[in-house]
Amino acid sequence: MKILIIEDDAEASAYLSKAFTEVGHLPDVASDGLEGYGLARDGQYDVLIVDRMLPKMDGLSLIGGLREQKIETPVLILSALGQVDDRVKGLRAGGDDYLTKPYAFAELLARVEVLSRRKTSGSSDTTVYRVGNLELDRLSHKLLRAGKDIVLQPREFRLLEYLMKHAGQVVTRTMLLENVWDYHFDPQTNVIDVHISRLRSKIDKGPEPPLLHTIRGAGYMIRDGAR
After folding, report:
1. Helix then strand then coil, % of the chain, to nearest 5
2. Could you give the number of structural domains in the chain?
3. Which of 4, 8, 84, 166 is in Cβ range 3.0-4.6 Å of 45 for a Cys bridge?
4. What CA–CA distance (Å, rounded) separates 82 from 88?
5. Could you tell me the CATH number of the domain that includes residue 135?
6. 224 CB neighbour count, 10 Å cutoff
7. Is 27 helix (H, G, I), strand (E, B) or coil?
8. Residue 189 and residue 187: Cα distance in Å, rounded?
């Protein structure tokens, strides 16, 4: 499970990062609201843990901004503010759960796991992704562009599915390695470049506007080429 911890207390965030790593999860840390907001906007995390009192952008503003961007990653709010009104404000801002400091890590872990399962159970609702005239059906494993069938190898299909899930967003090499190849390190091969090249030759051939773009120095993006 990929977890983003947005916490300005360095000691607290280091403790959480170490604890989640020890139980087999993959935590990232942001030390202020703006940094956390930027990372969370990629939508690559299973759960966000957000401190309410943050520099540069407070936790509730961060969560509200994500929800306005239609980013529905589950959020657990951590806060020393534990009154009923405080919890209500956090949930109304878009938080999914609220835990008051101090807390036991066992309880935090249990709540995070519940939120992750909730996301997973809801993620199957989208069975068809569309970008321009490209249509991918996750259930039938069919791909059409302008109504014409395109045949993909299984890894190519997973790669395109991930890109279309994040249409209009920059997808980094690290994101692809972790989510398509299940590598948690960079093996220093050209495997991604080879698959991107093959995919591009299949979906962007002919007179249609290109959909798959290389963002120099950042990664890749799929977007409607007609726009």
Report:
1. 40, 20, 40
2. 2
3. 4
4. 10
5. 1.10.10.10
6. 14
7. strand
8. 6
Amino acid at 121: S
Residues 58 and 114 in one domain: yes
Asked, for residue 227, whether it belongs to a domain, the answer is no
Instruction: Spell out the SS3 assignment of 8-20.
Output: CCHHHHHHHHHHH
Instruction: Please say which residue of 123, 153, 172 terminates a domain.
Output: 123
104 with 143, same domain?
A: no
pTM exceeding 0.90:
no
Q: Do residues 204 and 165 both lie within one domain?
A: yes
**110-140 per-position pLDDT tens digit:** 889 888 876 654 444 567 889 989 999 887 8
Clarify whether residues 82 and 132 are in a common domain: no
Give per-residue pLDDT as tens, 169-223: 888 988 888 888 877 677 777 899 999 999 999 999 878 899 999 998 889 999 9
- Domain region containing 194: 128-222
d(CA 162, CA 157): 9
* Helix 59-68 and helix 84-92, axial crossing angle in degrees, nearest 10: 30
Tokens for 112, please give them: 């995070």
47 vs 224: CA distance, rounded Å: 29
Secondary structure (3-state) at 90: helix
